[in-house]
């Protein structure tokens, strides 16, 4: 039977979000209804609200979530009713070009539920990243559910569903950081701070955090940074070189995503070093670099989409690292809020006073 639940929707570009009643249909073949436990307030949700992703309003916001499987549709075998899961937006198809090459982390045809969640008047909702988890229940494709064991704090491990995974994955999967390497991270918001934690987890010995905010730099130190640079009063390229014996870092991660920070990342890496772009640029941004410099410096220039993660592989491993005390996911939970507090959480995000506000349902 279908369900009526409370949820947060964005009805129009830049309009305040609303808490309303929505309809959750029965799961179809390959689909799952999940009782949502927690959902982080991510920048991507704000982009949906502001019209930066599309205009398919109304949007059902929220995607960085944990929950418990409540119902399963025909043919679902990867999860069962009662399983605790982290939701993801990379439900691999197993058949596209990337999957056929043994690279499912780049799947080009990821799945979403086909049945539609609606407003009470029947208006179809567009779920954020195919999830829509600022709701008491949500409907997703079975492949969007990654089962996890244990009793780890849902608010903490749920952040692996998007931002924290993007940062850790940029360090470990895309940057391929190795033990003993030097790493610089430009931009210490939620994703950049997660990249610092990922660099520490991978065994980097010199980890340089760069930001304009001393408060964010202090948090970065708590999560593994060995050096901090306030780029408002210090040239970050010179500071990164000084901290690495004059050479530059082996890996530089740009977690901001503007031409100025990318250029800083490019020139602050060692010869044959790696640059990883995980900050999301605006569509109108352009980058200019001397092509001879690109050739002469060698190495690689990479972009990282969702931390190049494979949820079925990475989520359980990182939850276990958290349970073993090697990954401090608790530090990313700045506050726990209710479903009616999301507009205020967006304001705090804009002011940079939180890493993550987490809605507890």
From TrEMBL:
Q: Which Pfam families match?
A: ADH_N, ADH_zinc_N
Cite the GO molecular-function annotations of the record: mycothiol-dependent formaldehyde dehydrogenase activity
What NCBIfam families does this protein's entry cite? mycoS_dep_FDH (TIGR03451)
Output the superkingdom of the source species.
Answer: Bacteria
State the family named in the UniProt similarity comment for this chain: Belongs to the zinc-containing alcohol dehydrogenase family.
Does Zinc appear among the keywords? Answer: yes
Q: Give the Enoyl reductase (ER) domain ranges.
A: 15-359
Cofactor requirements of the protein: Zn(2+)
SMART domains tied to this protein:
PKS_ER (SM00829)
Q: What is its EC number?
A: 1.1.1.306
What protein does this entry describe? S-(Hydroxymethyl)mycothiol dehydrogenase
Keywords, sorted A to Z: Metal-binding, Oxidoreductase, Zinc
Recorded hits in PROSITE patterns, A to Z, give:
ADH_ZINC
The question of whether Magnesium is a record keyword is answered with no
Q: What is the lineage of its organism?
A: Bacteria, Bacillati, Actinomycetota, Actinomycetes, Mycobacteriales
